[in-house]
Specification:
Distance between the termini: 25 Å
Shape: globular
CATH topology: Rossmann fold
Oligomer: single chain
Number of domains: 1
CATH superfamily: Flavodoxin domain
Radius of gyration: 13 Å
Strand content: 15-25%
Length: 92
């Protein structure tokens, strides 16, 4: 994780948050001072608690606005992804 300043955290929303494997991953890696960018697929619960859980696990990281894409719409979400990346300042 050391060489990265911006880290995208992608996951399927399971039971209102990210899978436990991502909790474990974030607990084991030092992301202090990093910018974390959550995004997920879902089938109705959007981002759920994911970004809040990430912020709680990584209090010394900056967590940007996340993106939730309905899984059944993922194959046609490029425009939404581009709009989101522009809004959070990661795409011109």
């Amino acid at each position: 994780m050391q060489p990265y300043d911006v880290i995208f955290i992608g996951y399927p929303n399971w039971w209102g948050t990210m899978p436990m494997a991502l909790f474990t991953f974030l607990e084991k890696h030092d992301v202090a001072g990093k910018t974390l960018v959550p995004f997920c697929t879902h089938e109705g619960s959007a981002l759920g608690r994911g970004p809040r859980d990430i912020a709680g696990l990584c209090p010394e990281a900056r967590v940007l606005e996340g993106l939730a894409v309905r899984g059944s719409d993922a194959s046609e979400a490029q425009k939404d992804v581009d709009t989101w990346l522009r809004r959070i300042g990661l795409l011109r």
